[in-house]
């Protein structure tokens, strides 16, 4: 999962792109990058680290121009080497810089095609570099000194025929504008907005989440449709084309559960409202199945579960308390490589307030349970703080299957719910009781018939039903070898020892 942003403005875009990436930091904490276009020259800064670490004043002063794109990276494919920080660049044709959120499920096949048929060299293990070279190759099939928006869209239609998976992409075409597009099922989010700039000239912004547009003063226009492309030109015109047969959107359900900010709206569905409804649904299940369990207090595992936990407390008429204090300077443990690192980070990130636990039967609410590492550590912390009983409720169903569309959910055998029932999971994490949201209830919680046309979602991590990419057991087997923790640790060690790629 990554965050992308692109802006065409009448003034310098370095600060608004920086601000947008800061607001999208939750989507990727591994690396950040920005490229701007000034008087025909590209200004690029990218590196490993948080947005505030990568961009210092000396860098910002050099990022000149009124058009640019940015990226906050979270590695799902490849390593955490700074060589894979984005945006990525190829000089031909035109000079293309690309930032990508998602995952190409046929990246391995495409990488071979790019070398053997397109005669292009791929220098990293990133599927984003593969995508960039495919886009460049297709643009080169009908070379023009002065391409039109239709030329870009025609090339993109050929790109769509080659790539599979879930993705949202922004690409800066040097001297011409920003080309952006979304996968045919709308799995990964992408939204655009506009505002009036100097002399009444329209300015445009596109990003992974609406919150980035809101903060920059842009009016949200709409989400990019599944399989749709948009071109925002340097002369401040905007063009659209449906590049694949139109489908109803099927956004990733886990965006609403965990990844997106609560103040974001994705495909006209409020993430905050969806999380309230998750709390309502789960509270009804708790009241029905735990009639004989006395709960003294409801405590959220911060931050994502807070909205649902507050609603659960209200529905079951039990006090809501902030019993776990979060250190905001520790990253999201979900996306950290290695079980030992995650276990250590849980203790660094969260600290219990003993008063809220001593002698009480506590209901902990989490947004989801993936590996179980965080849940187990927090339950132990609750007992150490004096809790009499520790129950846990998950606002999402059991995560049983890997994600292949851009979320680094690990190998299936590292998912605690894989091939286990609720009682077995409960025993492993050390809880006195465990309850999960039902998938149908989660879907109902996220559907907003009044404002959105979304009626179905990508539910693959819960159901094992993959809607794109021709996913089979062979693919999942290869993915498991690539994503297991031991492999990630080995890749990180190699990245640290290697000579820096070009």
Which short descriptors sum up this protein?
502 residues, alpha+beta, Rossmann fold, 7-stranded antiparallel β-sheet, 6-stranded antiparallel β-sheet, 17 helices
Written description of the protein model:
The chain is α+β, with helices and mostly antiparallel strands. It folds into two domains: 3-247, Aminohydrolase, N-terminal nucleophile (Ntn) domain (Glutamine Phosphoribosylpyrophosphate, subunit 1, domain 1), CATH 3.60.20.10; 266-464, Rossmann fold (3-Layer(aba) Sandwich). Helix content is 33%, strand content 23%. The protein contains 17 helices and 21 strands. It has helices at residues 14-23, 51-54, 57-60, 107-116, 127-139, 149-162, 210-215, 253-259, 271-289, 306-316, 339-349, 373-384, 422-429, 439-446, 460-463, 473-483, 485-497; strands spanning 3-8, 31-38, 41-48, 67-73, 88-90, 96-104, 165-173, 177-182, 191-196, 202-207, 219-223, 228-233, 238-242, 265-266, 269-270, 297-300, 324-326, 350-352, 361-366, 389-394, 433-436. It has a seven-stranded antiparallel β-sheet with strand order 3-2-4-1-10-9-11. It has a six-stranded antiparallel β-sheet with strand order 5-6-7-8-12-13. Helix 4 packs across helix 5. The longest helix is centred in the middle third of the chain and has 19 residues, at 271-289. It starts with a strand and ends in a 5-residue tail after the last helix.
